[in-house]
Every structure is written in C-alpha cells, then in structure tokens.
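>> Question from a student workshop board

For tomorrow's exercise we were told to take the sequence and the ligand below, predict the bound structure, and bring the output to class. My setup keeps failing. Could a helper post the expected result so I can at least see what it should look like? The ligand is iron/sulfur cluster.
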Amino acid sequence: MELIESKSIFSPATGFIKRGGFEWTCNPYIGCTYGCAYCYAAFLPQAKRPPEEWGRWLTAKKNAAALAERQARKVAGQAVYLSSVTDPYQPAERSLMLTRGILEALVEHQPRLTVQTRGPLVVRDIDVLQQFRSVRVNVSVPTDSDEVRKQFEPKAPPLEKRWAALRELRAAGISVGVCVTPTLPIADVEAFANLLAEFRPDVLVCQDFHDAGGGFGADTGDAALAIRKELQWTAAKYRKFVDRLRRDQHVYEGEAGFFPPPQVEPAAAPGLFDGVA
Ligand code: SF4
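>> Workshop helper replied:
Here is what the output should look like for this input. Compare the format with yours to find the bug.
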C-alpha cells in the first residue's frame, strides 16, 4: 500500500453523482482492495493502473483527516458522497481510520452525508454518524447468494455481515439504503424479496449490468459479464426480480437511486417556557 500526501479531500461531484444532486465527493483512498469484478471505478481516469490490476493496489491519502479539518467548511450544509471511486470501509480503514477522521471533521459543518460501502466496519463509526442531522448509509448487497458473491467479489465481506451492519445502523437510528447494484444473479427471488420487504430500507436500489463496449468511462468489466453469462442471468430475469420487489415497496433503478438524504433543520433551541409544567 502506498501512502501519499494529497492536496484536497473534497472534489466537485461529476457524472451520475452530480446528476443525483450531490455537490461533492470524498475519497480517502485511491483504488480498492475489495476488487469487485464489475467495479466501474477500475475504468475511470482516477484509477492509476490498468483495469486488470484493479483490487491489487491501494493508495491511501494519509493526510485525509487533516485536509478534512481544513476544508470541511466549504462543504458545510451541502451534499457529500463518500465515496465514489473507492470503499471508505475497506480493510485498510480498520487501522488507518482515514474515513473516521473525515467524519469527525465534518460533524461541525453538517453536510448532507451519504456513505456508500459494503464494509461492515462502518458500524465502528456509528457514534460519529449519529451526530449528523442528515445522513444515509448505503450498503451494497448485490445478491442473496454468498456463492454468487464469491464469484464476483471474493475479497469482499460475506453478505450476512452486511445485513448485520444494516440492522445495527438502523437500530442506532441511522437512515439506511440497500443497493442491489449491480443486481447479480439471485438464487431465490421470492426469499430475497421477502427479506428486503421485511427489512424495508429507506431506499432500495437495483441496477442491471450495463455494457458500453468500453466506449464509456464507467463500464462493467468483461470478467463480470462472463460470469453473469455462465450463471445464465439475463436482463429478463433482472426485470422479473425488480417487478417482484415492487409488489412490496418502492424500487429505484440505476442512477435514480443515488440521491442525498433530505435537509434536516437543527432542532429549535428550547424556548423560555419549554419544559415548564
Ligand atoms: S467495493 Fe466498490 S469501489 Fe471497491 S471494488 Fe467493489 S464496487 Fe469497486
């Protein structure tokens, strides 16, 4: 792992993140050791190495927390997406605590914060997350099958740990999103639909694979498309799955599911007579 001194930690949002209403992105790391086969970030200019090496390198912005301390004022009250091209709770975060340092710096400035992760380590920071008035944690749960998960993202945490994290976040009063994105082959549509209906996330997002033939920055890698074909998962099966989910709850699809949590005004200061019986 390479450690670097970065110049800034908040970048103006671009692409679908900007279209979703975010003003800023925040990436404490470059690269991601989860190395999911379908990761679009592997194809973006921010990735410093060829897509074939995605998942095998990581650069950490060692001054991320200090930068956030200095720069958090400029994102005050605005919509911040953490993170767009890495996972803020990948294994290195356990010891480096860059994401935690950024959160601590942001609290005072109360951005509308979205945390996007598949790392159950996010529960470590519940105490800080609870201090944001407007926050949502999106957890990626792209399938119901750990066997399928292992084929696409063998280095990422087991699904049950992600569900445990989601339950813990919710119990702590934090708004949660479940991102079934990209929607990987589903082993038991009915059982998964029931699980999602029972949990009822604040936001539920699905997204089919997309294949732009390499002609567009964010694309699904060939390796992921090959696994999908081998498992005989098709666009028609995806459509049936989404239709089934919609019998129970609202389902956003694709970009439409990535938007900031609503603005929450600070609680009014106690009035002169408040609390007087
Ligand atoms: S966790 Fe996210 S950023 Fe990391 S490889 Fe997987 S999809 Fe890409």
